[in-house]
Every structure is written in C-alpha cells, then in structure tokens.
Specification:
Blueprint (H helix, E strand, L loop, with lengths): L2 H18 L5 E3 L1 H8 L3 H13 L3 E6 L3 E6 L12
Helix pairs in contact: 1-3, 2-3
C-alpha cells in the first residue's frame, strides 16, 4: 500500500472508531458508509479490514447488502474472532 493510502486508511480507522465508540452501530452499504466518512470505498474497506484484524470492530452482513459495524468484543482472543 502506498504511503498516502496508508495515512488515509489510518485516518479512516480513527474516524470509524470515534463513530462506534459508546456503542453506536453504523449500518449502511459500503458506498454509503464510505461516503459518510468522506473516503473512497477502497480506503473504507482497507480501514475496516485492519480494524477487524486488530479485533477493534465487528462487521455483520445485513439485508439489502448493508453492513453493521460496531465495536469488537475485546474479551475474545483475536484467533477466535469470526471474520
């Protein structure tokens, strides 16, 4: 990943964590969630992947191609978390 893309992903990770802190659940398509954060879908997905791998968030598929994004369950070991 290029340096600019890495910085964009890190900023997006911080923005996602800020939005889901306190138990807020984000629900939308990848397009709508990326747009709400002001980033491309590629940057959004990169940030989501990194946060899932770190166990910081969980993402579930919802009806109509929507995702729900919430804080991860920190009590589950990373290897045991569903992806």
């Amino acid at each position: 990943m290029m340096p600019g893309a890495i910085e964009a992903s890190e900023r997006t990770q911080a923005a996602l964590l800020a939005r889901v802190s306190g138990g807020v659940v984000l629900i939308g398509t990848t397009d709508s969630l990326a747009s709400a954060l002001g980033v491309t879908v590629t940057t959004f997905l990169s940030a989501v992947r990194a946060l899932i791998e770190a166990g910081r968030i969980t993402v579930q598929m919802e009806p109509r191609s929507r995702l729900s994004v919430r804080l991860g369950d920190r009590s589950i070991a990373p290897a045991d978390r569903p992806v």
